# Entry
Amino acid sequence: MSRSDEIIKTRGEKVSPIQVENVLFGLPGVKEAAVVGVPDEHLGEAIRAYVVREEGSSLKEAQVVRACREQLEAFAVPHEVRFVDDLPKTPSGKVRRKSLLA
# Structure
């Protein structure tokens, strides 16, 4: 279960980043993923997914969003998907979510 400070509050709903990440990890071509809430004037927080593709993968944002729409409630679907080469991590290997927002 996510820590309470990691819960994303969007459209009046609470979304656990892990819930969305589990869907992302199930997609072919996804090596790593992290989900964060970013400030949004209308939604409170918008969901942003950071995805590290497996080498040779041609996974596109539309494919990620489509898969999320099929498996998640509408309010939990990422509003933005950013593909990155790697995710910032702590020495123990946990993703530094706050670094993604910087």
Summary: The two ends are 24 Å apart (CA to CA). The chain has three helices and five strands. The CA atoms of residues 10 and 41 lie 11 Å apart. The beta strands are 8-10, 13-15, 30-40, 44-53, 80-83.
